[in-house]
Specification:
Helix content is 46%, strand content 7%. By secondary structure, the protein is of the alpha+beta class. The chain has a four-stranded mixed beta sheet with strand order 3-2-5-6, covered by helices on one side. Strands 1-4 form a two-stranded antiparallel ribbon. Belongs to the sigma-54 factor family.
Length: 490
């Protein structure tokens, strides 16, 4: 093999840090982008808040007015109301025990004096935990020190649903006494457990579903109708309650049909997971990235930038940069200036791409905006990519974790992309539209005679939609709708 040198020209795509930043900003949601902009604002001295942007006419005014506006308002109010005036005469020598409010009392605002509405979004409610609620009841219940220690162990071992899954002896295994006669016994543990089972919410400290329902039934009034029949079902026929054959279940339990239906209705009103009623779940609110509304017969798209900080280049620092200076301070300013410019350019490019994608989706899905999911058209990423001359990966990044607020509700942008099924006329129908039609058909069925998957398939064929029975079953399960046998009512 002979060695040699040769020149070769080639092109390759290099992922520069600026390009990586632009791609990362493209797939951030509105909340994540806001956090990223705040971090850049704190880390880059060449960025500053742009507070000189004029306020839009439809935007609510800032409640914190400027100092000059407050003074002018105070002067106007002092002319109209003599009591509303500033106390300009402040004594030079104020006693030590004097109250500052008695000497200098600025006027109160109209909102505070008129008792305006409280902004509930600024009120934070501290909700106690499930175990804290039980411990509060324990402190109000007369227990001996020995029983209170056992009860505390039971409270620590309870799960989020309100059940005790472990054995009572295992829960209290850490409790030891020096005297053998003072050791804990099973009867003592059960006695403490029965007292705890009277706590709120009803059904807590149960060791099984049957015991949980029995505790709730025992707390009902003895005059409750069908109470004994409900206890009979819970004790021996809990697995058969979901049966759809009422005649067979009545024969098995020895109850009349009317009595069986009343007992079942009473059992269904119980809570099989009492602890979940007190569990604190943090609600995550969705902030839409864009809004769409109909103005003069045309759908308009508007980006949601109400909570976005408006950034700009700091003129004071940028003017200090000297092109011929190579000092460390000047190089530091140059690097941050280039980074700030690229960051603002990337945000602008991200918003422009998101706007184009949202407008194209709205243009193709006008039927959905006018008539709902039934009129959804089949659409894939390549449809938007070819229309905007972008790559499918770019469309995928733009539609990830982005939400669009429509008159039909708030939907993720990926919701508008769906597969298609064939129609009798040779066209295509969106799978989302098929699911919406199935939901309407099942919602209009008779409870005594629910529609089977085969019947739903034939009804869709009558509307020109050709789908297989297994496809109907798949769509039905994706909607969380049980089968026809499970939907049947007595």
């Amino acid at each position: 093999m002979r060695q040699g040198l040769q020149l070769k020209i080639s092109q390759q795509l290099t992922m520069t840090p600026q390009l990586q930043q632009a791609i990362r900003l493209l797939q951030l949601s509105t909340l994540d982008l806001r956090q990223e902009m705040i971090e850049q604002l704190y880390s880059n001295p060449l960025l500053e808040m742009d507070e000189d942007i004029p306020e839009s006419p439809g935007q609510d005014a800032d409640p914190t007015t400027s100092e000059s506006n407050q003074v002018a308002e105070a002067e106007r109010n002092s002319e109209q109301n003599p009591e509303y005036e500033w106390n300009d005469e402040i004594p030079k020598d104020v006693p030590v025990d004097a109250n500052w409010d008695d000497v200098y009392s600025p006027p109160t605002t109209a909102a505070s004096s008129s008792g305006g509405e409280v902004n509930l979004e600024q009120v934070f409610q501290v909700t106690e935990s499930f175990q804290g609620h039980l411990e509060w009841q324990l402190n109000l219940t007369p227990f001996s020190d020995r029983d209170r220690e056992i009860a505390s162990a039971f409270i620590d071992s309870i799960d989020s649903s309100g059940f005790i899954a472990a054995e009572l002896s295992d829960i209290t295994a850490h409790i030891h006494y020096d005297d053998i006669e003072d050791q804990l016994h099973e009867d003592e543990l059960v006695a403490v457990l029965h007292r705890l089972q009277q706590f709120d919410p009803p059904g807590v400290f149960a060791r099984s579903i049957s015991e949980c329902l029995t505790i709730q039934l025992n707390q009902l009034s003895p005059e409750t109708q069908y109470l004994q029949s409900a206890k009979h079902l819970v004790d021996g026929f809990l697995q058969d309650i979901a049966s759809v054959d009422s005649a067979r279940l009545a024969k098995k339990t020895g109850l009349e049909i009317n009595e069986l239906q009343g007992a079942l209705q009473l059992v269904r009103g119980l809570n099989p997971r009492p602890g979940e009623s007190l569990s604190s779940n943090d609600v995550e609110y969705i902030v839409p990235d864009a809004y769409v509304e109909k103005i003069k017969g045309r759908w308009r798209v508007k980006l949601n930038d109400s909570n976005m900080p408006r950034l700009r280049i700091n003129d004071s620092y940028s003017s200090l940069i000297k092109r011929s200076d190579s000092s460390d301070q000047n190089q530091f300013l140059k690097d941050n200036l280039a980074e700030a410019r690229w960051f603002l350019r990337s945000i602008e490019s991200r918003n422009e791409t998101l706007m184009r994608v949202a407008m194209t989706i709205v243009e193709l899905q006008r039927g959905f905006l006018d008539h709902g999911p039934v009129a959804m058209k089949p659409m894939v990423l390549s449809d938007i990519a070819s229309k905007l001359e972008l790559h499918e990966s770019t469309i995928s990044r733009v539609t990830t974790s982005k939400y669009l607020a429509t008159p039909q509700g708030i939907f993720e942008l990926k919701y508008f992309f769906s597969s298609h099924v064939s129609t009798a006329g040779g066209g295509e129908c969106s799978s989302t539209a098929v699911c919406a039609i199935l939901k309407e058909l099942i919602g209009a069925e008779q409870p005594e005679k629910p529609l089977s998957d085969s019947k739903l398939t034939s009804m869709l064929e009558q509307q020109g939609i050709q789908v297989a029975r297994r496809t109907v079953a798949k769509y039905r399960e994706s909607l969380g709708i049980p089968s026809s046998s499970q939907r049947k009512r007595f």
